[in-house]
Amino acid sequence: MSKKNVTIITGFLGAGKTTLLNNILEQGGDEKIAVVINEYGEVGIDGQLVVETADTIVELNNGCICCTVRGDLVAAIGELVSSGRPIDRLIVETSGLADPAPVIQSFVLDDVLKSHVRLDAIVTVVDARHFRGQVAKDEAREQVAFADVLLINKTDLEDAASLDATEREIRRLNPLAAIHRIRDGAASRAAVLDIGAFDLKNLLAIEPDLLGDHAHEHADDIACVALTIAEPLSPDLFNRWFARFQQARGRDLLRMKGVLSFEGENRRYVFHGVHMTADGRPGRPWGAGEIRVSQIVFIGRHLDAAEIGDGVAACRSLPAQAA
User: Which residue ranges does the record assign to the CobW C-terminal domain (predicted)?
Assistant: First the structure.
């Protein structure tokens, strides 16, 4: 039985990993692709945003696959490849806070995985606007250093001088990887799939301790607040609350994302944000019989869960009280 290629997509919070994944899937044709998505919070948003062309989606939530749910990653992929399901390739999207080293270890040290899959490439997505402010973080540096392919995303948001400065910083951390500048996660499949770029010997030259123990710890001040709201939200109330909240706490907000149920709307509203930048737009229609709830995740420093929960709850569109 031929081994299946595995592509790992990594990158810091809000870089555009899921957008890249969707672009790859939409170019997939008849290929059978299994996707494993890891999210830091207990509420999975990214799995809801993956296009329906993925044949199998496995979500590993409430922890990072580099530490707390690493065993789940090995078990999930082991089950996928040994189940007899028709799978042509696997794509793993890591949490934005993941250290790539333990994830790589899983594929080069685990006997079950080694017998069924081949690690093809580590693809790291870089946020053109925010990377130079993120590079002080260990995770952001490691995600770049271990990459075989680096995609500088959101290039439409920065000028040429800024993009050149970002690329120089990236080259300082990783002089060997291929670099592509893209916007809206639009990379070609030829740039990221079946490229045979993963080379353990090269990585060991960069990180001799790659195959040793990696006890990855997340900063104590980073927290995740995940909310599920059953009642529809008022778009006016939510937009006003969110604008105030982002203005007050934007520097501490590493990542925001959600799928919202707005009053009077038959389509899901999808929003993303990083620090002071946020974007929202209508998504697909709610399905027949689909439970309409709003699910929102905030990842950041010194977040007050009660403050956020009360703020979003106040945006509910509740029936008027009878006089």
Answer: 222-316
